[in-house]
Amino acid sequence: MSAAIQKDPVLVVLQLTGGNDYLNTVIPYNNPLYRDNRKAVGIGDNQILQLDKDFGFPTYLAPMKKFWDEGSLAIMHGVGYLDSPRSHFRSMDIWHTCEADKVGTEGWLGRVVREFDPKKENVVTCVSFGPSLFRALSVPGVPVACVAGPLETYGFLPGIQEKAQRQAILDRFSRMYTPEPGSGVMEYLGTTGQDSLLGADILKAAPIKYKSDVKYPDTIIGRKLKGIAQVHCADLGTRVFYCDYGSFDTHAGQAGLHSGLWANVNSGLEAFMADLRAQNKSDNVIVLMFSEFGRRVRDNGSGTDHGAAGATFVLGDKVKGGHYGDMPSLDAGKLVQGDLNPNMDFREIYSTILDKWLHLNPAPILNGTYQQPAFLN
Question: How far is CA 312 from CA 131, 138, 227, 239, 348, in A?
Fold first, then answer.
């Protein structure tokens, strides 16, 4: 009998942009302080799916509840960092660079890609679905394939159908972006341009190779997750995928907005996991879901304002499901400016993923050593 083929571990990051409301996602439904503080946006008892005697999901997270029941969903509580600035831009920058005390210059996942492929032998080691390069992926000299739309139409000048005309323009682009060694910015731009051309050519194969009976929802996040599945199932050597969805910045009208956002995320994830499992492609994939901060404990009458501690999720067949860490106290005397006080540094989660999943030394990537919650089998 031949030995099983060893699959490289793959990380998918889903960024919940805007500051997801922790307390209305992982609901402490038996804590009277939840009801006291959530007069306007609190989730009713008849709309809660109980995880255990302490916590529940709102009904619009029903697919996540299924992942929880099967033991493939880990919930990290009270995640953040000290002295949260409550700024979207600064908070995201901290999550992306792991630099809380200064402005970082390198993204943590860019460093991961550099470790995986130091000679740039595969320009699609990292693939990002979104219109721009996420800070977490940005390291000079590290190629990232950024896909702004469906893979079927991805590439340079896809609107030009006449082959000879398109090839002539691409040849001109290639010559224009030929890097000049030692030319500084122009060398960087040239290398980036050449990497982009090569990456576009490689990714063309993904939708051609992809065959699936799973129907994804026709939503922004559904299309991104389908694109990730297409690339992953094409075996192009991609190790890191990144996408985002939002905005979860629910200052007003939170009830309908929050439920709609999570319903889209859940239907997309349900299709994604079903797709990978049907094709025997799920056992080497984990999905990290994070938001830059949680939201304030007391609602503002129709929504919630920027907070500090939040919840982070890790999903996958090799994940050891359960609660990790404790939800910070809702007692008024334990709050920081009205917010839940973080008690798990987000870099602890990264450290576990780097060490136990990606098999990399976390310290140089995270600029330090952190505890590791044991959510991976």
Answer: 24, 22, 23, 21, 11
